Amino acid sequence: MRKIIAVTLIFIAGIINTSCNENNNIIQSALLNKSWTYSYEENVEDQFEVFRPTNYKKFPPSRFRQVFNFKDNNLCEYLVLLPNDSQYMNNGNWEFDEKTNIIKIYNENSEILCIYEVIELRDNLLKVKAKNP
Fold it and tell me: Cα separation of 118 and 100, whole Å?
């Protein structure tokens, strides 16, 4: 009898855990829809890169600080740095795979600019690890 109860509890815990993970992924993809600014001061070397919402704080002066603005319908804008140090926002597209937690960002010509694995995502924090395109 104890064995049946233990197996049943493990089975129920597995179902609850799977359901929670699916809900977290749905929430995560919704949390991406905002403007994110690279906060390299918070990076942990070779482990992850940190992005914060653009309006999170006044970032210290920097030559260049990457910005991604993820919008509805998989549209996005991203900051481009030119050789003369001028910067401009360019249009592109993005996609998020909820099963692998991978974000792919494309330019206007549908060429991959970058790929990130989402390590952690909260309302005010996006931790990612860069992947090779």
Answer: 9
Tell me the HSE value of 81 on the side-chain side, using a 13 A CA sphere: 8
In three state form, how does the secondary structure of 62-126 look? CCCCCEEEECHHHEEEEEEECCCCCEEEEEEEEEEECCCCEEEEECCCCCEEEEEEEEEEECCEE
Is 112 or 43 the better-scoring residue by pLDDT?
112
Q: What is the spatial distance between Cα 19 and Cα 42, in angstroms, rounded to a whole number?
A: 32
How far are the Cα atoms of 23, 24, 45, 100 from residue 42, in angstroms, in the given order? 28, 24, 9, 24
- Mean pLDDT over 21-37 rounds to 70
Q: Is the pLDDT of residue 93 over 50?
A: yes
Partners of 120 in beta bridges: 127
Taking the complete model, does pTM exceed 0.85, yes or no? no
Q: What is the CA radius of gyration of the chain?
A: 19
* Tens digits of residue pLDDT in 58-73: 999 999 999 999 999 9
Length of the chain: 133
